[in-house]
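Tokens as discussed.
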């Protein structure tokens, strides 16, 4: 056996020790609330498809827009917050929608619930999707941002113009603090549109009497406790001076007190003796009622992170904070109006990039009280803001409010026109049209003291559409309906012919309209319709001559408001509305209302 050859030469160097390789550990993902991001999400449940664009802002707030399919192509805006545990809530500023749930780490998905009115979708799984662009809506960055494009002097000048229009005092030095607080609160609440800001300030200046009265006033002859217990307490026993109008209309004192008691208990939540006085109107919006103070604590005070003496202040324990602490008052005002927390109606319901309804916006606060007057203040603010910052309007006109009335002085001047007969200049003005008011920007004109008078034929600006005889009632409803809805009324005849005895309640009548009958054709008694009137309906009245027609501009639970022409200067009129069983009855000489 031959031995293997011996290998000679240098020995190999020993290998250096190898570093120990630790097992791979992925980085701990940041929580959704610790990052700035902008992402799209998508999910489907119960046959409804949801899309959301959500942006986490540097201050930790969330700004979003959502769409549903089927639904509006422009979507709706939301604001909210994400918390330390990645839970979040988003609330609509253009409607009453809300999303609440929890993001996954890094916010790549979410589990949420959706609520809007009586609609509710639970366990909605949202996964990341491409950002969606709104249809026919300019990005927020392209619209006027009052917090970034306006300085304090510009806003103060606009507030001064607003106060002057409303007949309220204005002290620049005193106003500075309040204006700054409101701008800051509006910015946090996502209120950056100029017209929305205009209505927030119009509300604040009106309710606080130009930043001079932050607690609700009471009537002379009463003590504060007596008055507010009767106005807002759980057991009112005396009618108030403000009830005089309802008493004159035939409402009984017992009915007024019964309605007030139910409102105070159910809506205001004043269930204990003394609540009426304790939770009386305070602040920029005159927050009223235990229930509303409790809501404001949750939607405004707690999320704001405000501390007083190291603690979260309590509006229920110290309701005076709603008046004495301007920061808290401003947050209540801005967030309440943005989210619809006062009446379920929000700024977005009446004012956004597509519409500006300063009169309807009064429903955000308390319905219709002084709606037209407050609207003029918002217009003054918006106009002053526009004049101060011409580049910030981006070419968008400020839309007309829903219903605008002329002043008493203008009304008196118009009524003097035919007193001594018409001269040539007055005849010219009458034919051209002397405005007595407008609805959605469509004017109504003075026809003089003779209702049968006409001033020629009325046509559209291009002469292609015939509206009727100037300036009779039929001309206004035909012109308004044509311009506002695109629906042309081809029916010919005076106003009385718009009501058809032969057409039953809910039956089809001329030009595709539905007739909602108010009276029994045999007895003439008011029996009402099962269809509740709504804005835009044409209302038909009986008269001793040719009948009368008008447009319904507003509907409440116990009243309607109509806009009309050829009743001297009485452009706006309010009528009682009652419900008997399942039927709605309008007062006055109403025969029917027509709906397309």
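Sequence:
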């Amino acid at each position: 056996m031959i031995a293997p050859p011996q290998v000679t030469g240098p020995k190999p160097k020993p290998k250096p020790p190898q570093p120990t390789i630790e097992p791979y550990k992925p980085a701990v993902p940041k929580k959704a609330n610790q990052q700035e991001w902008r992402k799209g999400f998508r999910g489907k449940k119960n046959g409804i498809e949801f899309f959301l664009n959500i942006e986490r802002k540097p201050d930790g707030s969330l700004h979003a827009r959502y769409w549903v399919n089927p639904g509006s192509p422009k979507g709706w805006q939301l604001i909210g917050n994400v918390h330390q545990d990645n839970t979040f809530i988003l609330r609509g500023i253009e409607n009453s929608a809300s999303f609440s749930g929890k993001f996954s780490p890094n916010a790549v998905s979410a589990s949420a619930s959706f609520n809007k009115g009586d609609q509710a979708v639970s366990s909605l799984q949202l996964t990341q999707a491409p950002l969606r662009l709104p249809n026919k809506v300019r990005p927020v960055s392209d619209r006027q941002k009052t917090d970034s494009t306006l300085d304090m002097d510009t806003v103060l000048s606009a507030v001064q113009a607003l106060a002057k229009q409303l007949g309220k005092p204005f002290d620049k030095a005193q106003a500075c603090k309040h204006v700054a607080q409101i701008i800051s609160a509006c910015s946090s609440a996502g209120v950056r549109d100029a017209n929305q800001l205009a209505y927030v300030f119009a509300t604040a200046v009106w309710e606080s009497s130009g930043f001079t009265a932050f607690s609700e006033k009471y009537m002379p002859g009463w003590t504060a406790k007596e008055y507010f217990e009767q106005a807002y307490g759980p057991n009112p026993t005396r009618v108030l001076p403000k009830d005089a109008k309802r008493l004159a209309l035939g409402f009984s004192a017992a009915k007024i007190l019964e309605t007030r008691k139910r409102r105070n208990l159910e809506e205001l939540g004043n269930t204990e003796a003394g609540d009426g006085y304790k939770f009386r109107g305070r602040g920029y919006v005159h927050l009223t009622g235990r229930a509303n103070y409790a809501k404001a604590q949750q939607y405004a005070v707690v999320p704001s992170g405000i501390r007083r003496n190291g603690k979260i202040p309590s509006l229920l324990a110290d309701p005076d904070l709603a008046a004495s602490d301007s920061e808290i008052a401003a947050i209540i005002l801005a967030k309440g109006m943005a989210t619809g927390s006062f009446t379920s109606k929000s700024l977005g319901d009446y004012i956004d990039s597509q519409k500006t309804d300063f009169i309807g916006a009064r429903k955000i606060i308390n319905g219709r009280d002084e709606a037209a007057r407050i609207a003029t203040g918002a217009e003054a603010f918006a106009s002053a803001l526009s004049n101060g910052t011409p580049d910030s309007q981006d070419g968008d006109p400020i839309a007309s409010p829903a219903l605008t009335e002329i002043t008493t002085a203008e009304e008196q001047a118009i009524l003097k026109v035919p007193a001594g007969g018409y001269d040539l200049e007055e005849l010219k003005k009458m034919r051209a049209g002397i405005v007595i008011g407008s609805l959605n920007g469509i004017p109504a004109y003075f026809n003089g003291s003779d209702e049968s008078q006409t001033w020629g034929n009325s046509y559209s600006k291009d002469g292609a559409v015939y509206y009727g005889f100037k300036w009779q009632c039929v001309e206004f409803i035909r012109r308004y309906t044509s311009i506002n809805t695109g629906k042309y009324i081809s029916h010919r005849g005076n106003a009385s012919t718009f009501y058809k005895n032969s057409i039953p309640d809910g039956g089809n009548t001329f030009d595709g309209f539905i007739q909602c009958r108010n009276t029994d054709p045999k007895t003439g008694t008011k029996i009402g319709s099962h269809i509740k009137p709504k804005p835009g309906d044409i209302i038909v009245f009986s008269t001793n001559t040719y009948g009368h027609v008008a447009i319904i501009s507003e509907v409440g639970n116990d009243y309607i408001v109509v806009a009309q022409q050829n009743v001297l200067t009485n452009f706006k009129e309010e009528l009682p509305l009652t419900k008997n069983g399942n039927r709605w009855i309008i007062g006055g000489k109403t025969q029917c209302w027509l709906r397309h």
